[in-house]
Amino acid sequence: MDLNEAQNLIPEMLGSLYEGKYRPAADGVMPDYPGGWVLEDDGVLAFLKASRTKNPFLWVRIGAALEIPTSSDLAFYVACANKDLVAGRAYLRYGNQHAFVGIDEAIFAETISRTHLPSMQEVVRRIDFALEHARDLQWWIVERFGGRSFAADEWYLLAPDLEGTVLEKRPTANAS
User: Fold this and answer.
1) 37-61 core/surface letters (b: 16 or more CB in 10 A; e: else)
2) Could you tell me the pTM of the whole model?
């Protein structure tokens, strides 16, 4: 699947699986984030987009909780939460006094084919699993550490900053 197919797949898939729970990622906060989609499902907020990288992938970021008071116990808890993930990662982003926890999942587009049902099922399985993991994290983190769930208009906190800011390649050993 190429970039254009991946971009078209996201809203089609969301429409068939999450009818009425998704919308384009565009509003007054970040009005020009083309190709991004927001999904609200059972208490968690997700941002989905096809990356415009050399090897495109579906990028899924799900907000578990935010405004969590920072602590080393929270950091350890999130690090341990990664052991339950089949793919992707749980991550913690710190501010001065508060943090947020999210799930980050990437599914390479070249492995997806509309004519190969198992590849389509794998995309759905990975998104559903990440959503469920985010819901579990949200419950336990808010219960144990405080914080709250993401509001519908806070999707921009999940938007990847990859576009235009990809790390430069390391110099090769032969570079002078």
Assistant:
1) bbbbbeebbbbbbbbeeeebbbbbb
2) 0.84
